[in-house]
Automatic annotation (TrEMBL):
Gene3D superfamilies: MFS general substrate transporter like domains. Coiled coil: none annotated. Pfam families: UNC-93. One of its GO terms (cellular component) is membrane. CDD domains: MFS_MFSD11. This is UNC93-like protein MFSD11.
């Protein structure tokens, strides 16, 4: 196995274990904190507020991430970020309202470092032929975290309408150990560098301020502004399926006596969808990119719109706010709820694998800034969603998702189609016979031939 692909596998294992801890916590945080409030009246922390703080801090700190990586390198940035995830999990063993929000700020800053470092490191270990495969493999391994962590929660929450202190501490203790294991894998990552020619510049020659200015310049380009619409959608739907949808199932008492147990099972099905999508597009990456990334994104869009409609008729409008005996247009069905969980995960994989692919291919020479901007836009949208999630009924949240999803998908396809058109024109120009005295294609035409 080639050295760079081994690095991708190690990266996948590191993120799989770190995010087994965090994504499981994000999925159950609202439910867990509501149980802590019942046992301790002095505790007033709110899950939606905590998640909103995390993503708002992540959005702000993403502007500094490229500058940080010029100093620490991608491996150092990922290790620093992973430690903040470990600290966040540990604080749940000592529930204090102020500590919850302080840890939320710290993990937000750490997330900016770990995700920007990840994007840069994945690009350094990929090229135009392997970026789709590596993105798919990494995404599938990462989303195994949803499967394993939530399966554990499903077992521990079985038959419980209230999550007691002992159960909470067992869950927190196990997730702490799993996060620490992920840090060990990240420490095993080996240094690498991208193959470049003499005419190319790399980020290692830039200082922190130049990296910051470069990120701003990139953000103002037309293609990045269009792609930001797709980034926004991934942030809104991320916050919905990771922090709103599964708790809403648990709050729907008409689901039956095991409604709380379904919170973990929902996370398992989301993870199954994510893993299947990532594995599918990783294995078939070289084949699917022949037809472009847009068919996969459009498929994800149609899958998500279907799931939003099914959620609308299955869950009551007040489900995001707490326990409710209300019903929607049909009697709430656990089976339909789990199907929607799977569809949400699979659709999310469609979007994210293709976003990773287009950023790693189109912006290979400026991957640090590109992935930082992706996470900035995505996180800002996620933070906004978590802020209104505690106030907006389910129907409003689904309506927002449908509108933003339509705009984001259209913008992504616009960038993809434009790049394909330029590549075809360049290919025709390169193959055309030269007139007497005519010079070969310019560097710009050569570059356009590298369309992924």
């Amino acid at each position: 196995m080639e050295r760079k692909f081994i690095n991708v596998i190690l990266l996948g294992f590191g993120f799989m274990f770190v995010f087994t801890a965090f994504q499981t916590m994000g999925n159950i945080e609202k439910t867990i904190l509501d149980s802590i409030k019942q046992d301790d009246s002095s505790f007033t922390g709110d899950g939606y507020t905590s998640l909103a703080i995390i993503y708002a801090t992540l959005a702000i700190c993403n502007w500094m991430a490229p500058s940080v990586i010029t100093i620490t390198g991608p491996r150092g940035a990922m290790l620093i970020g992973a430690v903040t995830y470990l600290f966040f999990i540990v604080t749940f063993l000592f529930p204090r309202t102020w500590l919850l929000y302080v840890a939320s700020v710290l993990i937000g800053a750490g997330a900016a470092a770990i995700w920007t470092g990840q994007g840069n490191y994945l690009t350094l270990n990929s090229d135009g032929e392997t970026i789709s495969r590596n993105s798919g493999v990494f995404w599938a391994m990462l989303q195994c975290s949803l499967f394993f962590g939530n399966l554990f929660v499903f077992i521990k929450f079985q038959g419980k309408s209230h999550i007691d202190l002992h159960t909470r501490n067992v869950v927190f203790g196990v997730l702490t150990a799993v996060c620490a294991l992920g840090i060990i894998f990240l420490m095993m990552l080996r240094p690498t560098r991208r193959n470049i020619d003499d005419n190319e510049m790399t980020l290692k020659e830039e200082g922190p301020m130049e990296a910051f200015r470069g990120a701003i310049r990139l953000f103002c380009t037309g293609d990045m502004m269009l792609l930001s619409a797709a980034f926004i959608y991934t942030g809104v739907e991320l916050s919905f399926f990771s922090g709103v949808y599964s708790p809403s199932i648990g709050f729907t008492l008409a689901m039956g006596e095991n409604a709380k147990q379904l919170v973990g099972l929902s996370g398992v099905f989301i993870g199954l969808g994510e893993v299947l999508g990532g594995a599918l597009f990783g294995i078939l990456g070289s084949k699917t990119t022949r037809w472009g990334r847009d068919p996969i994104v459009i498929m994800g869009y149609l899958i998500h719109m279907t799931s939003f409609f099914l959620i609308f008729i299955n869950l009551p409008n007040l489900a995001p706010f707490g326990d409710t005996t209300d019903t929607s247009y049909i009697t709430p069905s656990p089976y339909l709820a789990m199907l929607c969980s799977f569809l949400l995960g699979f659709g999310d994989a469609c979007y994210n694998t293709q976003i990773y692919s287009i950023l790693g291919g189109k912006y290979a020479d400026n991957s640090t800034s590109a992935f930082a901007l992706f996470k900035f836009t995505q996180s800002l949208a996620a933070a906004a969603c978590f802020f209104y999630s505690s106030r907006a009924p389910l129907s409003v949240q689904l309506g927002v998702l449908a509108v933003i999803g339509t705009a984001g998908t259209a913008a992504f396809c616009r960038v993809e189609w434009a790049a394909r058109s330029v590549a075809r024109a360049a290919a025709r120009a390169a193959l055309a016979p030269l007139a007497p005295g005519e010079k070969p294609a310019s560097r710009e035409v050569e570059d356009s031939l590298h369309y992924d």
